[in-house]
Amino acid sequence: MTTALKDRITKLTPEERKLLWARAEQRVLQRNKSSQKPDYQQLVAYVKAKQDFNLEALKSSLRAKVPEYMVPAQWVKMEEFPLLPNGKVNKKALRNERPLDKEEHKAKPEAREPKNDVEKKLLAIWKEVLQLPNIDVADNFFEIGGDSILSIQVIAKARAAGIDLEPKQLFEHQNVEKLANYMASEDQRTEEAISQLHLKHLVSIVPNGSKPPLFCLHSGGTHFFFYNLFGKQLKNDRPVFALQASPHEGELVLHESVNAMAKDFIADIKQVKPHGPYHFISYCYNTAIGVEVCRQLEQKGEQANLIIADTMADYLSLFDASQTPRRAKAFLGRFAKNPVKTVSNFVKGKFIRPLRERLKTNDVTGSEKIVQELHLNHIEIYRSYHWQPIKSPVNLLLTEKKQEEFNTKVVASWEKMTTGNLHVQPTLGHHDRLFLEGTVVETAKNVDDLMDRYESKNLQDNR
């Protein structure tokens, strides 16, 4: 690495360095996918010794004198070097020799079983990357063939499997057992660390877990409390957070746009979880926020999975002026069947309920006033949001409706909103009770299945 390049990297911000690392991961994985042969190089030592030698002692001696990257990743013991007719070493023939590390692992006794889910995942990743069938949880990654290039693959696959692994952690804890123990101790410190962060919008429901977190977006500008029961019903080892438009204490935050709200949400999210993949669940009027958060994360090179709870995209478009002929036709159809009920519902919807809402607006004070102000602001920015398709997959939880054609419109609205995959997941219950007692268990089960499905596909794509 040149001095000029070192200087440039030193001047990068932490976020820019993380983005640079993420791009490097993607390039390595893309190159390896397009070729049957691994697209990386390793330092290999071919040793001809007068007598048997202790490989570990030789490595330790070498590490005391040179940096880690100069220590050979593989060692081959030679009786004689193969020669060409001109007397030079036949380097092509050397490649057929089996490294000592491979021989040792082929012959070593059966390795210990992993003690927990994190060890199990890490061990499977190490075996895949190092192409070794028998690895012990105490084996040092860099002593059994690992190097800095392979470590990028390990980190990328670990993140795809829901383990938020950093390069520094792998270099400091070089075997599966120590690395898993470190991750467990990190989980224990997470709750305390989150409480010390300066977070305006993020609230912890279930702070710990090794899986990618689920972020629950507020409904209608403020409400997220109903997610508390839902979060407790999800599988263990899944961190769950809620995002509120504004804290109710202190200065009120009224965003001028959906884009600005999404930007603030991501700033909080990144403090808790610097890298994806991320899961989001949107409900009612916060679907625009869900779409925009995913869009902005996509622009940062992150992966996101958007789960929609029984809600149409751009719901207010149903009341747009362009829909007047359709609404008039539907009104006349209802009037023909039951004129008294139709007129009564029309008067209530157009005059009585709006009047009651205005009267309530004038009477509320304190916390109710804050909730109302946040809700009205959210409807305003929702109305002005410019809806555009995202690349992220969308998973749609869908309840049965009395009017089946309405669900057809809901599905069609989301087909327009993603260039990725749209998966429709039928779920029991009524829209208003998805996160309440009696229905929440079914909702949590379906959301768990959707997240597992996404992570499984993500892991396959990264192989």
UniProtKB/TrEMBL annotation:
<keyword id="KW-0596">Phosphopantetheine</keyword>
<dbReference type="Pfam" id="PF00975">
    <property type="entry name" value="Thioesterase"/>
</dbReference>
<dbReference type="Pfam" id="PF00550">
    <property type="entry name" value="PP-binding"/>
</dbReference>
<protein>
    <submittedName>
        <fullName>Phosphopantetheine-binding protein</fullName>
    </submittedName>
</protein>
<dbReference type="InterPro" id="IPR036736">
    <property type="entry name" value="ACP-like_sf"/>
</dbReference>
<dbReference type="InterPro" id="IPR029058">
    <property type="entry name" value="AB_hydrolase_fold"/>
</dbReference>
<dbReference type="InterPro" id="IPR009081">
    <property type="entry name" value="PP-bd_ACP"/>
</dbReference>
<dbReference type="InterPro" id="IPR045851">
    <property type="entry name" value="AMP-bd_C_sf"/>
</dbReference>
<dbReference type="InterPro" id="IPR001031">
    <property type="entry name" value="Thioesterase"/>
</dbReference>
<feature type="compositionally biased region" description="Basic and acidic residues">
    <location>
        <begin position="94"/>
        <end position="115"/>
    </location>
</feature>
<feature type="domain" description="Carrier">
    <location>
        <begin position="113"/>
        <end position="187"/>
    </location>
</feature>
<keyword id="KW-0597">Phosphoprotein</keyword>
<feature type="region of interest" description="Disordered">
    <location>
        <begin position="92"/>
        <end position="115"/>
    </location>
</feature>
<dbReference type="InterPro" id="IPR006162">
    <property type="entry name" value="Ppantetheine_attach_site"/>
</dbReference>
